[in-house]
Amino acid sequence: MNDLVAGKTGDWEVVIGLEVHAQVTSNAKLFSGASASFGAAPNENVSLVDAAMPGMLPVINRECVYQAIRTGLGLKAQINLKSVFDRKNYFYADLPQGYQISQFKDPIVGEGSLRIVMSDGSARDIGIERLHLEQDAGKSMHDQHPSKSYIDLNRTGVALMEIVSRPDIRSSAEAAAYVRKLRSILRYLGTCDGNMEEGSLRADVNVSVRRPGSPLGTRTETKNLNSLRFIQMAIDHEVARQIEIIEDGGEIDQETRLFDTSTGTTRTMRSKEDAHDYRYFPDPDLLPMVVTQDEVDTLAAGLPELPDAIRDRLIGDYGLSPYDASVITEERETALYYEAASAGRDRKLVANWMTVELFGALNKAGKSLANCPVSPDMLGGLVELISDSTISGRIAKDVFAIMFETGKTAPAIVVEKGLKQVSDSDAIEGLIDKVLAANLDKVEEFRGGKDKLFGFFVGQVMKQSGGQANPSMVNQILRSKLDG
Ligand code: ADP
Ligand code: MG
Fold it and tell me: Using one digit for the tens of pLDDT, what is the confidence trace for 356-402?
């Protein structure tokens, strides 16, 4: 399970902890009524509080607090009924307050866990250390004008959840699986849209290496990675860099690094010594935040079924493979589509048609389930025709293609194109007799022991029927005639 990395002087174990910043889905910012939506004209969504005008006071947005609690519940975490907002003092050009309101010693959410499933089906629980609420900063742009910098404060004060993992992750592939799973849970919960391109979800990766069984090594932190690929690249680069330094007799500096997307390498941003001196103290403008157990219970009761539970159900109750179950449950829309399409039908067959044909066609057409021309009931209807032997699996592929193209239902297409499977034994027998009569030499060879000619006969009969003969009946009747 621990993918060790081979160095010149022996094996190394990789240790990774992730700090993920997830933008809270809410109408307004964490401490002001300004809109938190993405894509507005620069500085359109800035209140006097966000601009830190003298005398302005922050007022907590309860919906953001509830979103953080929902997320904590989704991560099976401790919810702290009392939490505290602190000032993290640091110069952010795009946060006019001169400090960030965050949570330090008393976060809203404590320890939890998140299950990752790797492509080989192995599963592992990664510890969550904490989740706290904090303000996002705005955006400085230095490339718009030769001598000026521009600032857009739209994002200033938008609520973020910082979700900190334990150093339990052991490879870049596990790190990607962790972020993918976290994103999936956030999207199920509706607490963050998970859009990494727009910056709604970004990760800082803490990486160290050690000899297997040794204490933790010194770590570096690479900041602000906004894609799964960059997360993996940054980790792989950092692991190789650290191993080389240590094997050459050097030491790792505990520092913050930046990932250069154009070269796939990391470089020093600042040493952690300076970065640590944030002079946190409780924000005197905000009282300690108190929520009641009743509120937490109400939020818990309103949570949707989450991917792990659905996955277990698909495997346990419907008999799906772990792989199909993972693919189907990663996104809530997919899971809902599957439930609707497969209800009262052959669950495994629907899963198969969904993951192979439907996803293949969507991929090819550059579409998603949101604008899919085939409704759940249409896919289910197609599978029904296979289950009751109206059409064969082969013909069903053609029907599916027409269905995807035209939006017509499978039964309508089958009638229109005359594709109904031939299950009339007299008709099939007639076809078989014709094929055998036309291939007397091959019949001789078969009876003389050339068994593999059976497939040839099946193929000929299917061809004669235009693909419409019931394949299992063809097999059965052919067998009895040849053996007879
Ligand atoms: P800081 O306050 O300096 O950010 P934390 O203790 O909050 O430090 O840790 C930040 C992240 O670093 C966490 O995700 C944690 O799991 C991870 N981490 C801590 N020690 C190590 C280590 N030796 N190697 C890799 N990751 C680590
Ligand atoms: Mg930290």
Answer: 999 999 999 999 999 999 999 999 999 999 998 888 888 899 999 99
Q: Which residue has the tokens 């500085």?
A: 43
The number of beta carbons lying within 10 Å of the beta carbon of residue 24 is 26
Domain range holding 444? 425-483
Cβ(86)–Cβ(280) below 8 Å: yes
Looking at residue 98, what is its pLDDT? 92
For the CA of 208, the closest atom of ligand 1 is: 24
Asked if residue 87 has pLDDT above 60, the reply is yes
Backbone angles phi, psi at 303, to 5 degrees: -75, 145
Residue 392: which region, alpha, beta or left (left: phi > 0; alpha: psi -120 to 50)?
beta
Tokens representing residue 260 in the block: 């250069």
Q: Are residues 314 and 256 in the same domain?
A: no
* Domain match, 352 and 464 both: no
Asked if residue 252 has its Cβ within 6 Å of ligand 1, the reply is no
Phi-psi region of 442 (alpha: psi -120 to 50; beta: other; left: phi over 0): alpha
Q: Is the CB of 350 under 6 A from ligand 1?
A: no
pTM value? 0.86
Residues 146 and 233 in one domain: yes
